[in-house]
Design goal:
Structural class of chain A: mainly alpha
Number of helices of chain A: 6
Strand order of the largest sheet of chain A: 1-2
Oligomer: homodimer
Mean pLDDT of chain A: 91
Radius of gyration of chain A: 24 Å
Largest interface: A-B, 61 and 62 residues
Helix content of chain A: 55-70%
Chain lengths: 137, 137
DNA sequence: ATACACTCCGTACCATGGTACGGAGTCAAG
DNA sequence: CTTGACTCCGTACCATGGTACGGAGTGTAT
């Protein structure tokens, strides 16, 4: 029933080093040890690592995941806490998407204006980077 | 006409340390020195730092900007090189946007499914993180 | 009994884009 | 001629999310 770190890593799809890293960071609690000093994990450890990975895929940082995990076992934590966190994350992601879309639009305009042949003298892309927008000091 | 590092930093809107950092990284060439050992910059140095900043705003990394800058003064570099780089960047940004949109959609679905009250027992967000997707080893 | 796989630990290292520190030297004004 | 602002340099440090290393101990199979 109990597993050693290598098997947990394999079944959770991460490196052994990553598990130790999560333990150091407090995302995974210190497991019991065998008489020989080996870490012994219950089956739930795999679920916990998967929890971390899925939350990461949804854009949460390890620091935020630490908070989510602490709520998971805190009887005072409410659905509202989690929902609020999710909504804050949605809004952060939204902002990031907007930024990237702006970048993309600018680049697309520049690329469209660039005929794509000849030397750089009049390349609109390079021109854009070179344009002076200096404020006098 | 020539400026010292502090003035360049001020006029370009970056820290002195950032200019030294760019110099170490090869984004800015080693400037001439005064007899006292101070760096002396021509006016174009400001333009070069602004070039870096604008390219960064459009999503280019310092490594990529180094390449763009080297092209800027290379007579063999063509518009096509730059355009190709811009289009590659557009496509990278596009991919990143898609990823973020996927994250956002998933989070929105979870947040919508979460009534936002009561304890965590049945919170669909936490449930999602907890869901087992184990492959048998 | 010995080879081999696994695990232990601390620490260093990777990329990214800087920021901070501290002791020394330079330069201009008062 | 001293004060204060600026600059010099190398190095360490920040966050982020891990990965790699190396020497030692453990556990198991043959």
């Amino acid at each position: 029933m109990l597993m050693r770190i290598g098997q947990v890593a394999k079944r959770a799809g991460v490196n052994v080093e990553t598990i130790r890293f999560y333990e150091r960071k407090g995302l995974i609690s210190q497991p019991l040890r065998t008489s020989g000093g080996y870490r012994e994990y219950p089956h739930e450890a795999i679920a916990r690592i998967r929890f971390i990975k899925r939350a990461q895929e949804l854009g949460f940082s390890l620091t935020e995941i630490t908070e989510l995990l602490s709520w998971q076992t805190d009887p005072r934590a409410t659905c509202a806490d989690v929902k609020q966190k999710a909504e804050a994350k949605i809004s952060t992601i939204h902002g990031r998407i907007k930024d990237l879309q702006k970048m993309k639009r600018s680049l697309e305009q520049l690329a469209a204006a660039c005929k794509g042949s000849g030397p750089l003298n009049d390349c609109p892309i390079i021109d854009c980077f070179e344009t002076q927008k200096e404020k006098e000091d």
